[in-house]
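Can't attach files on this board, so I'm pasting raw text. These are the components:
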Amino acid sequence: RKEVEQDPGPFNVPEGATVAFNCTYSNSASQSFFWYRQDCRKEPKLLMSVYSSGNEDGRFTAQLNRASQYISLLIRDSKLSDSATYLCAAADNFNKFYFGSGTKLNVKP
Amino acid sequence: GAGVSQSPRYKVAKRGQDVALRCDPISGHVSLFWYQQALGQGPEFLTYFQNEAQLDKSGLPSDRFFAERPEGSVSTLKIQRTQQEDSAVYLCASSLALGQGVREQYFGPGTRLTVT
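---
Top answer:
Structure tokens for the assembled complex are below.
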């Protein structure tokens, strides 16, 4: 079983829609969590860190549920430019990041 | 400022050849990480340096893989006697993490290795 699991999608949504992705992690000792965005044939780019209290950055909201061991990413008012693969990562105490396989998002006009 | 840089961006190697991949982290970042990313998968951890010390090499798939960071800045990942299963994108990331504090990691553009 992988440390971090994600629904591979693809999620096909129209522009302006709200879409949410979940990501589950198996190691209850995981300390920190992150969402990255990866465009085709490019490197992962940090989208946001996920804090215990949840955090928001513009149209993006990330939440952490330690009891159920999942993190979520909500994207409001989707743009065509949001089309990408979204990777979640869980980090242990020793800075080892475990990534999911990514969720593909296609935003259609 | 300048981000993480990697070279070469693309490398084609014949099976059995040795390759060396270079990573130049963000200036001032003490921690450096190597990942392997296969098509359709997320990055998989290979190894981690804090300054020049290699703190974790548990992800290196075999003893053909070797990484170093002799002066605590540039790092090289070497793969000896390449095999077809080594074909992947090799990503380098750096962060300000020190000790046990977890910090965001920033990735370089990767080296796409194809072994024929």
